[in-house]
Amino acid sequence: MSLTDVLITVLKVLVIVLAAPLLALVLVYVERKTLGRIQRRMGPWHVGPMGLLQTLADAVKLLTKEVLTPERAEPWAYWIAPIVVFVPGVFVLVVIPFTPELVVSRLDLSLLYVFALPAVSVVGFIMAGWGAGSKYALLGGIRLVAQAVSYEIPLLFSVLGVAILAGSLSLIDIVNAQGDTVWYGVVQPVAFVIFIMAGLAEHSRTPFDMAVGESEVMGGPTIEYSGIRWAMFMLAEYVNIFILASLGTIIFLGGWHGPVLPGWVWYLLKTTPILLFIFWLRGTLPRLRVDQLMGFCWKVLIPLSLLNVVVAATFKVYGWGPTIPMVIASVLAAYWFYRREWRQVVAVPARDPIPVPTPVPAAAE
Amino acid sequence: MAQEVAGSRPAPTKESIADWARATLEPMGGTVVVDRQFVEVELPAEKLRAAAHAISESDDPEFRLLYDISGLHWPDDGELEAVYHFFGGWHAEGITLRVRVPEDRPLIPTISEDWPTANWHEREAMDLFLFEFEGHPYPEPLLLEKDMQGALLKHYPQREAPDMVERFKQRGDVPFEIWKAVRPEIENG
Amino acid sequence: MAEAVPGTSDSNAEFMQINMGPQHPSTHGVCRLELAVDGEVVLSCRPEIGYLHRGVEKIAENLTVIQLPVITDRADYLSALNTELGVMLAAEQLYEVAVPERAEYIRVIMAELNRIANHMMFYGALGTDAGFSSPFIFGWWNREIIHDVFEEVTGARMLHNYIALGGVKQDVPANFKDSVKKILPQLADGLDRCHGLLTDNEIFVARTKGLNPLTPEEALRLGLTGPSLRATGLARDLRRLAPYSIYDRFEFEVPVGTVGDVHDRYMMRLLEMRESLRIIEQALEGMPDGEYRGEIPRRLRYPVGEAYSRTESPRGELGIYIVGDGQNTAHRVKIRAPAFVHVSAMEELLKGTYIADAVLIFASLDIVLGEADR
Question: Which stretches of chain A sit within 8 Å of chain C by CB?
C-alpha cells in the first residue's frame, strides 16, 4: 500500500471515530422523541427547535460534570472499563458496508469480526462491575455478563445460516448474494427474529434489560460512574444499537440493493424501521425477570437457532429453493415459541370467591 | 371453613357479641360495657393475653382483624390506657378491649403470638407512650428515634417522668431473628 | 444452624445483606427493607419505617376540629379526600351533627374521584417497578384530568382540606356537574388504554401471574384489607359491609379475585376504578340542591367521648379514632393506616421470593409511607 492509501484509510477511521458519538447523540434524540410520542407526550421540546439540541445539551452537561471515583474502587479496572466497552463498538463501524464504496475496510472475514469485537466489551462490563467496589455493581455486572455470553450463541447461530447460504463470511458478499436472489430475511425469517431478539439481549435493551434496570435494586454495573465515563457507556449502547440495526439490514434485508434510489438511501430506509422497532419495544414492554430471560435463551432461542443452521445447511447441500425452508422453519418456530416453559410461571389453582353477608340495615350505631 | 361461615350463618349483632363477651370474658375478670359504639370489655393487664386468645379462637362470633392498638394517656389519673379494636373478617361488628395501667409501671403482656399484626402496633405504642409489652419478640423503636421516645405523652417534652425514659433506654439492641440463626456468634451478644 | 436458613440446603450458605431503600427508585416513599439474600432469593426481610414520621397525631392534638383536615390530609397524601371523609365521619359521630343530602353526594363524588386518582398512581408505580416507563405517563394523564376538577372545586390539586364537619367547606362551583360529566368518558377511555397496555401484556403476565398467591385466611392473618384482600377471594368491602355516608344507595359491584397473586391485586384496582366511575355517574344524577353544610354548634369544643369510624380508603380499611375531653382540641386522634399493617406484612410475604419479585410485591400492596409513618 502506498502512503496515500494509508493516509486515506487513517482519515476514514478518524471520520468513523468522530462520527460514532454524533451518531449516538442523534439516536438518543430519536429514541426520546419516539418514547415520548408512544407515551402521549412531546419528548424533548425546549432546547433548540423541536428539541433537536437536547442531546447536545446533555452531552455538554455530562462532559462538565464532576468525575467522581468511589472510595472502594479498583483504580485500574474502574478507569479502563468505559474504554473497553466503548472502543470495540466504534471499531465495528469500520467494517460495516453502507454501500460498496462507503466502507473503510473490506475484510473477507468481516462477519466474524463484527461478532468477535463486541465480546471484548463484555469484559469491559465485568471490569466496571468489579472495579466499582459496590455490591450492586458487582451483581449487575455478573448478571449482564451471564446474559451477554448466553445470548451470543443464538446471535451467532442465526447468522451462521445466512453465511452458509451465501457461502461467504464477508458482509459485502452477503449483500451481493441477496442482490441476485431474494433477501435472506424472507428465506430465513426465523433467523431474522432470533437475530433481533438476541441482539437486544446482548446489549441489554428492554425487554431484556434486567441487568441495568433502574427500578431494581441494582442499577447495573455502571451505577458508580458519572460524567464523561457514564457518557461513554451510554454512547456505546447506542452505537451498538445502530450496529445491530445495520447488521440486520445487511444480513437479512439486502443492504443497499434496491431500484431507482442510490444505495445509501435504501440502506437508511431499511435501517430506520429496525431502529424504530427497537425503540417501540422499549416503550411498550416491561422487563423479563432474570430466570425468565435465561430460560428464554436456553430453552427457546438456542434450540431454534441450532435447528435453523441445520435446515440452512441441508438446503444448501441439496440445492432446494427458498420457499420450503421458510415454511418449515416458520411452523417449527411458532411451535417452539408458544411452548411457554421459559416463562417459569407457577400455576396456582383458582378459588371460588367467598361472599360476605350484607348487613341488616336496622342495626346501626 | 370460611365458605361455610360466610354463606350460612347470619352475621352477629352487637347484642350477640355482648352475650358472648359476658359468657367468655367476664369470668376472666373483664367488665362488659354495652352502651358505647362497639361492645367494650375493660380488663386488668394480666388477663389480656387470655382474652385476646379467646377472641382469636372464637368461631361465632369470629374476629379476624386486629385493627389497631391505640394508646391513651390520662395524666390526671396517672394512667396509660391501651385500647384494642378487633373486628370480624366477614362481618362488620367488633369488640374493643381496654387495659389501664399505671404510668410508672406500664406493663402489658404482648398478644403478638395470637395476633401477628399486633407486633407492629405494640412497637408503635411503645414508641409513642412508653408502654412495655412483656414477651414482645422485637421491641425495637419503630417510628421514633431513641431519644424521642414517649412523644405522645401529655407532658412530653418536659419529661416529668424521667425514670420511665431511663428504663426504656436501658432496653438495648435486640438482634433480629434471622441474624441469630445464620450468625451464631451473636446469639450470646 | 444450616436448616435455619430457609430456601437453601447448603450448610455453608452464604448470605448477603442488602438494603432496598430508604431511597427507592420506585415511587412509594421512604421505606427501608433490609433483606438477607442468598444469590437471588430473599431469605428474610426486615422492614423499617419512620423516615416520614412527622408527628401527625401529636399535631392533631393541638388543632381544633376545623383545622384537623389540614394535618390528616398529609398522612395519606394520595387519598387525602378519603382520609378527610373518615376523619369527619368520626368527628360527626362525636359531635352528633347531621350532614345534608347535597353534601353527602358531593363527598361521595370527591372520594370516588380520589379513589380513581389513587389507583392510577398505583398503576403507574407498578408499571415502573416492572421496568416499564409508559404506564406511569398513562396513569398520570388521567390523574391530571381529575386534578383539574379538584382544583376547580377545592382550590388545590392534591391536599384539599375540603370535607369539613357537617358537610363540605364550600359549595361546588356552578359548572361542577358539567366538568365531571366531561371527564367521565375521558377517564373511561384512559382506563381502557391502561388495560390495553398492561393487562394482557405477555411479559407483565409472566412477571405477575402466580406471584405470591394468598388465601383469605393468610391475608387476614397478615392484616391485609382492601383490594389486596379482595384479590384473595373474600368479598369484603366496607362500602357494602358497613355502609357509611350514602354508599348504600348506589349500585356497584365489588370485584373479587381468585388467586390473590400480584396480577389479581392489580386487576382488582383496575376493576374498582370502573365501579367508581359508575358510582360517580349515579351520584351526579341523584345530587339534589340544598345546603352544603349542616348545622354545627357555635362553640366547637370536643364533646367528652370517643368515636371510631371505619372507611374503605383506596388502600385498605382506614380507621379513625377520636377521643374528646371537652377541650377545644382533641385528646387523641389515632389514624389506623392500612399501609402500616401492609408494610409489616412484608416481613412474611417476601420470604423465599426473588429480589426482582420483591419489588413487584411491594408495589402490589399499594403502600404509601406517609400513612404508615404519619
Answer: 35, 38-41, 135, 206-207, 209-210, 213-217, 219, 283-292, 343-356, 358-359, 361
Alpha-carbon separation of residue C306 from B65, C331, C337 (angstroms): 21, 10, 18
Residue A306 has pLDDT above 50, yes or no: yes
Asked, for residue A178, whether it belongs to a domain, the answer is yes
In a domain, C18, yes or no: no
pLDDT at B187: 46
In tens, the pLDDT along C284-301 reads 998 888 888 888 888 888
Mutate to test the interface with C, among A205, A287, A289 (most CBs of C within 10 A): A289
Q: In terms of C-beta density within 10 A (0-12 exposed, 13-18 middle, 19 or more buried), how is residue C62 classed?
A: exposed
Residue B4 lies in a domain: no
CB burial string A332-351: b at 16+ within 10 A, e below:
bbeebeeeeebbbbeebeeb
C35 occurs within a structural domain? no
Domain hosting residue B151, numbered range: 14-188
Average pLDDT, chain C: 86
Query: Would you call C234 and A348 a contact, using CB atoms and an 8 Å cutoff?
Result: no
Contact of C77 with C368, CB cutoff 8 Å? yes
Torsion over CA of A192, A196, A202 and A205, rounded to 10 degrees? Answer: -170
Would A116 be classed as within a structural domain? yes
CB atoms A359 and B92 under 8 Å: yes
CA angle C349, C353, C356 (to 5 degrees): 110
Report the distance separating Cα A137 and Cα A222, nearest Å.
7
Supply the range of the domain harboring residue A7.
3-346
- pLDDT tens per residue, range A150-183: 999 999 998 888 888 888 888 888 888 777 667 7
| Contact in structure between B90 and A354 (CB atoms under 8 Å) | yes
Q: Is residue A161 part of a domain?
A: yes
C219, C337 contact by CB (below 8 A):
no
pLDDT tens by residue, B78-102: 888 999 999 888 788 888 999 999 8
Q: Which helix (H) or strand (E) holds C20?
A: strand C16-20
Residues of C in contact with B98 (CB under 8 A): none
Residues 34-53 of B with CB under 8 A from C: 36-38
| Interchain CB contact of C259 with A (< 8 Å) | yes
| Chain A CA closest to residue C233 | A353
Give the amino acid at C218: E
Whether residue B178 and residue C308 make contact (CB cut-off 8 A), yes or no, is no
Domain presence at residue C283: yes
Give the Å distances, CA to CA, from C44 to B121, C232, C351, C367: 21, 23, 5, 20
State the CATH number of the domain containing residue C223.
Answer: 1.10.645.10
Residue C80 falls within a domain, yes or no?
yes
Q: What's the number of domains chain C is made of?
A: 1
Burial of A3 from C-beta contacts in 10 A (0-12 / 13-18 / 19+): exposed
**Residue closest to A121 by CA, chosen among A236, A261, A16, A7:** A236
pLDDT at C161 exceeding the cut of 60: yes
Number of independent structural domains in chain B? 1
Does any domain span residue A201? Answer: yes
Segment 227-246 of chain C within 8 Å of chain A by CB: 232-237, 240-243
CB A96 within 8 A of CB A114: yes
Show residues of chain B in contact with C46, CB under 8 Å: 176, 178
CATH number at residue B37: 3.30.460.80
* CB A158 within 8 Å of CB A200: no
- Interface residues of B toward A, Cβ cutoff 8 Å, are 2-3, 6-7, 10-11, 13-14, 37-38, 90-92
List the domain range (segments joined by +) for residue C135: 56-337
From chain B, the residues in CB contact with A356 under 8 A are: 6, 90-91
Question: Quick one: average pLDDT of C117-125?
Answer: 91
Number of domains observed in the structure of chain A: 1
What was the ipTM of the complex prediction? 0.86
